[in-house]
Amino acid sequence: MDKILIKGGNSLNGAIPISGAKNAALPIMAASILTEDTLSLSNVPDLADIKTMANLLEPMGVEIAVDRRVNDPQGGQRMDLRAHAIVDTTAPYDLVRKMRASVFVLGPLLARCGTARVSLPGGCAIGARPVDLHVQGLEQLGAEITLDGGYINAAAPRGLRGAKIVFPKVSVGATENLMMAATLAKGETQLVNAACEPEVIDLANCLNAMGADIEGAGCGVIVIRGAPSLHGASYAIIPDRIETGTYAIVTAVTGGRVELVGARLEHIAALAEILVRAGVDVDETENGLSVSRVNGHLKGVDIMTEPFPGFPTDLQAQAMSLMTVAEGAAMITETIFENRFMHVPELMRMGANITVHHGSALVRGVDRLRGAPVMATDLRASVSLVVAALAAEGETVISRVYHLDRGYERLEAKLAACGAEVERLREAS
Ligand code: EPZ
């Protein structure tokens, strides 16, 4: 398995192109099931999770053509998905356990075919992550659902019908799954206490381009008026706000100035506020965002993760790496997932001073981190070790690079272009 070797200490200067958003592209790919026409996507990131979603959709009958020749210089790819006829409505355990986002096929399959059999995802490194809100919402739309042999068996032989669904808890995935299902339901659906993440808005915009009638995405209440069918569309995926935030944090921790090309400030406003309070400059430019810390020390700032527009849980680990070398202390509180501090022991092996108590981590800043062999159990924890390694003295070797390949396109190349010493050590598996 590949590893990544980083020699820390260089400040970063230059430009980093931001790729298309993984977490927008995944549900949008699943939305192709909702029409027999072609859904033409651009700015799709070239990532392991995107390939896994393609591997899930193809046996169902979705024809997928990827065109890398029309890539923009930033590496985004074009992908045409055509679900002319759905021949299989099963999402098997082997793929779902690899990637939980596979559950996004449940709503579209049920809406289009009236039946779906999707494996329950099972455990996850960052928390229990149940899918009860997806299942309960679909039942409220009229689906009959049974759990059997580790699978969700869903049927709606007479089609789905609109309903008012009040989520007891904000869920990005449940909002997206139900929004997709409701586009082909009879009548009106209201999703109350819906997630407001930019990826939810992107999915709604794509569905509307396909002929759906969705209002209110990005607000707490989404109204969907069902249509008899959807049609094909061309749609460009938004830039990845978590990749944006990760490279903003990298620049803050190493010092220097980096332009994040294509990035949107409104997508990372909560992080930008923390960075500014920590002593980092964040400015909009013609092409995106500029992040710089040329003089001056980092200062510790408290952070609490919340649903959008709050501070994203997907940037919590990276922000913690930043705070390990800030002056003073920072209290970092995780409210979304119960087990998202897996990076803490690894950061401590690099010299960080962190005390965890339930959902909060008290980070006391140290003068410097020192390189060490490290590994992590999920995507964002892994990249937090990249952040720490770039700031650390000496060499760090990060194992289990496959986590990074799930969510960061051309990570080493993007960092190296700005002056980081990063090398992939390829090993036969
Ligand atoms: C999405 O996961 C993202 N994944 C995650 O990104 C992200 O961390 C998360 O939203 C929160 O922002 C994709 O978009 C593919 P949730 P999702 O449903 O939809 C609980 C990354 O690193 N919950 O908003 O699964 C759940 O356990 C990944 O890119 C239920 O209780 O997250 C959690 O505590 C990791 N029942 C909370 O809600 C349910 O049925 C929010 O989860 C669903 C969720």
Can you offer a commentary on this structure?
The chain has 429 residues and is α/β, with parallel strands linked by helices. Helices cover 29% and strands 26% of the residues. Strands 22-23-1-24 form a four-stranded mixed β-sheet. Strands 2-15-17-16 form a four-stranded mixed β-sheet. Helix 10 runs parallel beside helix 12. The structure holds ligand EPZ. The site of ligand EPZ has 26 residues, from helix 1, helix 5, helix 6 and helix 12.
Q: Quickly count the helices.
A: 14
Bound molecules: ligand EPZ
Helix content: 25-40%
Low-pLDDT regions: none
Q: In percent, how much strand structure appears in the residues?
A: 25-35%
- If you compute it from the alpha carbons, what radius of gyration comes out, rounded to the nearest whole angstrom? 21 Å
Broad structural category: alpha/beta
Average per-residue pLDDT, rounded, comes to: 95
Shape: elongated
- Counting DSSP E segments of at least 2 residues, the number of strands comes to 24
Largest sheet: 4 strands, mixed
Alpha carbon gap, first and last residue:
5 Å
Order of the strands making up the biggest sheet? 22-23-1-24
What's the oligomerization state?
Answer: single chain
Task: Give the helix/strand layout.
Elements: E1 3-7, E2 12-17, H1 22-31, E3 38-44, H2 48-57, E4 63-67, E5 77-82, E6 90-91, H3 93-96, H4 106-113, E7 115-119, H5 132-140, E8 144-148, E9 151-155, E10 164-166, H6 172-182, E11 188-192, H7 198-209, E12 213-215, E13 221-225, E14 233-236, H8 241-254, E15 256-261, H9 269-278, E16 281-284, E17 288-293, E18 303-304, H10 316-323, E19 329-333, H11 344-349, E20 353-357, E21 360-364, E22 373-374, H12 379-391, E23 395-398, H13 402-405, H14 411-416, E24 421-425
Parallel strand pairs: 2-15, 3-14, 6-7, 10-11, 18-19, 22-23
Antiparallel strand pairs: 1-23, 1-24, 3-5, 4-5, 7-9, 8-9, 11-13, 12-13, 15-17, 16-17, 19-21, 20-21
The structure holds ligand EPZ.
